[in-house]
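This part of the workshop introduces the protein records we will be handling. Getting from the letters to the tokens is the skill we practise here. An example says more than a description, so a record of this kind follows:
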Amino acid sequence: MNAQSLANEVYLKVEEVAARYGVSIDTIYRWKRNGDFPKARKIGPGVTRWRLSDLIEHEANMQACFATHLNIPHNE
């Protein structure tokens, strides 16, 4: 990757990643520990970020699941 490509890359904080997926920060770190999520990048001392391009690639490879029936009890 050349310097221009690196300069154009977007890096997200864990709070931004959690908001993107509608989950908690703890969930992001759990996914990371379990190996179910793109690796974070150390971009400085004590600074960890996720590359947006890695997240987009991960999303493109995710499988979708659709519920065809919900068994919800009726309150009578």
